[in-house]
């Protein structure tokens, strides 16, 4: 089968899409700006809902791109994509021009930089960490404060960088709630005596087995849920964190000391994806993610002929959804290359 | 002594760390479904007592969990134990037993006893 496809981004979406296209007989060039593939999955420890080790996912994805039709280019950054009739030219910052019949954007997401929510003190107080920092601790096998003590009392703040006009992100990142539930349970597994409090605005448990996980966290682990978004964090003389939150269900403000506070960072359009969107004229939505050509039938299609989307460059998604979306992108690309359908 | 009308207002904050949550712990250890509440309010909506007086089982459960026991001690006696709240609870909380245990705990004055 003739047809050359460039997939930009070597995370879950890009790897799965490249693998599927390779299996269908197309020649695929997978471009990754970092030196290693895998993307964000590399930084995660266990995945919800079944707490599978993320290494299993990485191995699966590596197998996908092990196909002979895939050429992997790492350490390469895409500048822009130009169109010349039916040919797309992918220009990289190091001066390469890669010709393709179709391009799949799989540029993924960036985690919200939590220091932007100054009131939570990330980067100011040692024991305010992010969900990603906590995953790194799980991977190391030790959840500890900076002073080496094991935290007895941990708070989790939902919606950090999501559903927040002040930081310009009005959308829900959708995965942070279930991540908080999963991480709260893992903290309890590390230290069964720990008390964990989730501070949420709404518990958005929309995915497969999420609600069951939420229930398990209450039933088996005794995780406490307090509805209300933490308004500010400070540190007291004992080096403990003091939080202020409105307990909206009690209708009263609440004050509490904590040993550690975990910020559930939301998902944003990746910087590199946004730059390619600007340089190449790919449409983006108000949420800054790539805008699908049609919300129902064209979530993998862009405004430019021959350019497709896969994964979290279009919206927050979990691994399952990302892989499904990447396969759908492959199906659209194949339809386009074989039948010329847009 | 002349009274000038100055007064100290009681802080409205729930001081979680200073509060006594032994009543909630007493209930939790005997009726594990207590911790499954998601604050939907079905119990309070269907409650006959709540229909005619200020009585909300949803609110009382929250206050117990936060250790605001003074707000519960007298109020929880209003419940008539009809059990309609158990029928409507989507999380399967044995709400009537929660009320029974709360009353028992208050009666025993369980502070520091669990």
Task: Give a description of the structure.
By secondary structure, chain A is α/β, with parallel strands linked by helices. Helix content of chain A is 26%, strand content 28%. Chain A has 2 domains: 4-108 and 270-339, FAD/NAD(P)-binding domain (3-Layer(bba) Sandwich); 114-266, FAD/NAD(P)-binding domain (3-Layer(bba) Sandwich), CATH 3.50.50.60. Chain A has helices at 12-23, 54-64, 131-140, 176-190, 210-219, 271-280, 319-339; strands at 4-8, 27-32, 46-47, 52-53, 70-74, 78-84, 87-92, 97-100, 102-105, 109-111, 128-130, 153-160, 195-200, 224-227, 230-235, 241-247, 252-258, 260-265, 267-269, 307-309. In chain A, the strands form 6 sheets. Chain A has a 5-stranded parallel beta sheet with strand order 5-2-1-9-20, covered by helices on one side. The longest helix of chain A has 21 residues, at 319-339. Chain A is elongated and about 65 Å long. Chain B has one domain. Chain B contains 6 helices and 1 strand; from the N terminus they run βαααααα. Chain B has helices spanning 22-30, 42-46, 48-52, 57-66, 84-88, 95-108; one strand spanning 14-15. The termini of chain B are far apart. The A-B interface holds A 203, 215, 218-219, 222, 224-225, 227, 247, 249-250, 252-257 and B 12-17, 28, 32, 35-36, 38-39, 58-59, 62-63, 65-66, 68, 91. Strand 17 of chain A pairs parallel with strand 1 (14-15) of chain B.
């Amino acid at each position: 089968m003739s047809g050359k496809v460039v997939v930009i981004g070597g995370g879950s979406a890009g790897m799965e899409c490249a693998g599927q296209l390779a299996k269908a007989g197309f020649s695929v060039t997978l471009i990754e700006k970092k030196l290693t593939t895998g993307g964000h999955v590399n930084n995660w420890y266990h995945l919800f809902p079944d707490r599978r080790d993320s290494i299993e996912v990485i191995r699966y994805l590596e197998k996908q791109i092990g196909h002979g039709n895939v050429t992997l280019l790492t350490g390469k950054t895409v500048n822009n994509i130009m169109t010349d009739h039916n040919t797309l030219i992918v220009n990289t910052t190091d001066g390469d021009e890669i010709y393709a019949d179709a391009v799949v954007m799989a540029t993924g997401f960036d985690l919200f930089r939590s220091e932007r929510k100054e009131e939570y003190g990330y980067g100011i107080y040692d024991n305010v960490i992010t969900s990603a920092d906590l995953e790194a601790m799980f991977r190391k096998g030790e959840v500890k404060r900076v002073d080496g003590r094991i935290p007895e009392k941990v708070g989790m703040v939902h919606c950090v960088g999501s559903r927040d006009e002040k930081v310009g992100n009005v959308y829900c990142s959708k995965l942070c709630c279930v991540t908080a539930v999963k991480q709260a349970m893992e903290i309890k597994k590390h230290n069964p005596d720990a008390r964990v409090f989730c501070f949420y605005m709404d518990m958005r448990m929309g995915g497969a087995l999420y609600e069951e996980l939420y229930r398990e966290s209450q039933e088996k682990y005794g995780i406490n849920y307090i509805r209300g978004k933490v308004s500010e964090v400070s540190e007291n003389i004992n080096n403990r964190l003091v939080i202020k939150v409105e307990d909206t269900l009690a209708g009263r403000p609440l004050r509490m000391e904590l040993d550690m506070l975990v910020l559930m960072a939301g998902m944003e359009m990746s910087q590199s994806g946004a730059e390619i969107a600007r340089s190449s004229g790919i449409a983006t939505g108000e949420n800054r993610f790539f805008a699908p050509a049609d919300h129902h039938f064209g979530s993998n299609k862009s405004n430019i002929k021959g350019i497709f989307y896969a994964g979290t460059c279009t919206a927050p998604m979990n691994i399952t959804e990302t892989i499904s979306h990447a396969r759908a992108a492959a199906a659209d690309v194949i339809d386009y290359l074989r039948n010329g359908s847009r | 002594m002349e009274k000038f009308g100055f007064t100290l207002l009681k802080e409205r904050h729930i001081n979680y760390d200073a509060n006594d949550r032994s009543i909630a712990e007493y209930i939790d250890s005997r009726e594990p479904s207590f911790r499954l509440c998601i604050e939907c309010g079905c119990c309070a909506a269907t409650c006959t007592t709540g229909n005619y007086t200020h009585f909300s089982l949803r609110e009382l459960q929250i206050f117990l969990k936060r250790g605001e026991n003074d707000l519960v001690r007298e109020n929880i006696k209003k419940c008539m134990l009809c059990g309609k709240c158990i029928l409507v609870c989507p999380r399967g909380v044995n709400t009537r037993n929660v009320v029974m245990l709360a009353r028992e705990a208050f009666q025993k004055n369980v502070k520091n006893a669990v």
